[in-house]
């Protein structure tokens, strides 16, 4: 059987190639949007949102998929732009109302996607070269991407369907084939997922060569924010440390008091918004037991850290407080908590973003 005749544009510029790249990119957008929405609700829960208690690896899965789909989209969107960029400069610039709408949606889609991917990649590296609040901006722009993509698809759907039907019969100029273009795109996306996204899979961390915190830290656990960076080094080592339980009964506990309470050990992950996950053995006091000491049974709790700043406190719903695996941890992997892991005590609970596993806890009260 003879191959395509040596006529027409290169395979990269064929409508069938652009349609297939768009489909792959669309899958990434949907997965990234859905998992990002869930992550945002976990970190900034609406009043109607019930924080899940299980499985323990839920946030590891959803945030791992979020990061993986985001980094996979980077080579795909670059290849898609390479396939369609001549269309972006076609005349007339405005033309009819449908054309104006299509071009506006395309511009919004391209700008919003590049913003999301660029800032998301820098967030993984914790390099914030901007003044805006990243979670809020990323959350809002995600809806711009979804809306612009929906309008773009609605306008282009007849062309896309035609391109899929006729793709196998299209002819193109000699050179790289469409299969080679798509294979290269998938290979680049897969390489990006391995180089960055493997940090969410314990045991594959060494493959995450572009993941800043996929390696080992103190006590075989990565660290996002050190005690020095949080400005708590002097305070946490003070012999005057007291954990204040502020409820109907005000209780103050020294570290020795906490160590004397019944201890429990659980195997739970720390899963962070940047995508990395690490499992460990955590030993400490059940948060439900501490709540009972202060007469806070059945209450939502707030945990305050010695650290100052945006994430110096977190809240926990009463249902999660009662969970047997929700601890105020004192030990990590059989050793006293390292200073950078929250010494003298920190929150650890299942299916919870790392940013809410508050370190250097000094106060527990009703939320």
UniProtKB/TrEMBL annotation:
Chain ranges passing through the membrane: 21-43, 63-83, 104-130, 136-155, 176-197
InterPro entries in alphabetical order: OxRdtase_Mopterin-bd_dom (IPR000572), OxRdtase_Mopterin-bd_sf (IPR036374)
Keyword Ribosomal protein listed: no
The organism's place on the tree of life at top rank: Bacteria
Stretches assigned to coiled coil: none
UniProt source species: Tsukamurella spumae
Entry keywords, A to Z: Membrane, Transmembrane, Transmembrane helix
Cited Gene3D superfamilies: Oxidoreductase, molybdopterin-binding domain (3.90.420.10)
Residues in Oxidoreductase molybdopterin-binding domain copies: 235-366
Protein name as catalogued: Molybdopterin-dependent oxidoreductase
């Amino acid at each position: 059987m003879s191959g395509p005749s040596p006529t027409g544009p290169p395979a990269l510029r064929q409508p069938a190639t652009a349609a297939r790249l768009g489909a792959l990119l669309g899958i990434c957008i949907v997965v990234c949007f859905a998992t990002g929405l869930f992550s945002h609700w976990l970190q900034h829960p609406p009043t109607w949102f019930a924080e899940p208690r299980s499985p323990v690896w839920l946030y590891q899965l959803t945030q791992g998929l979020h990061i993986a789909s985001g980094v996979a989209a980077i080579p795909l969107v670059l290849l898609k732009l390479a396939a369609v960029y001549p269309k972006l400069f076609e005349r007339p610039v405005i033309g009819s109302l449908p054309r104006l709408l299509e071009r506006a949606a395309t511009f919004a889609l391209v700008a919003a996607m590049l913003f999301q991917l660029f800032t998301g990649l820098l967030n993984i590296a914790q390099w914030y070269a901007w003044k805006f609040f990243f979670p809020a901006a990323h959350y809002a722009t995600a809806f711009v991407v979804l809306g612009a993509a929906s309008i773009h698809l609605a306008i282009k759907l007849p062309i896309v369907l035609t391109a899929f039907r006729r793709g196998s019969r299209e002819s193109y100029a000699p050179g790289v084939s469409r299969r080679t273009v798509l294979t290269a795109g998938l290979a680049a996306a897969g390489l990006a997922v391995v180089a960055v996204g493997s940090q969410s899979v314990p045991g594959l961390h060494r493959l995450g060569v572009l993941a800043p915190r996929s390696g080992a830290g103190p006590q075989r656990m990565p660290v996002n924010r050190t005690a020095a960076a949080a400005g708590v080094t002097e305070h946490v080592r003070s012999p005057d440390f007291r954990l204040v339980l502020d409820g109907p009964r005000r209780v103050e506990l020294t570290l020795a008091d906490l160590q004397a309470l019944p201890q429990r050990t659980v195997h739970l992950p720390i899963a962070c918004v940047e995508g990395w996950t690490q499992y460990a053995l955590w030993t400490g006091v059940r948060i439900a037991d501490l709540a009972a000491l202060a007469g806070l049974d059945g209450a939502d709790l707030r945990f305050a850290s010695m650290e100052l700043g945006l994430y110096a406190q977190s809240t926990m719903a009463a249902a999660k407080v009662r969970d047997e695996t929700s601890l105020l941890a004192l030990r990590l992997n059989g050793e006293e908590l390292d200073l950078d892991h929250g010494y003298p005590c920190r929150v650890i609970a299942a299916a919870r973003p790392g940013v809410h596993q508050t370190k250097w806890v000094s106060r527990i009260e009703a939320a």
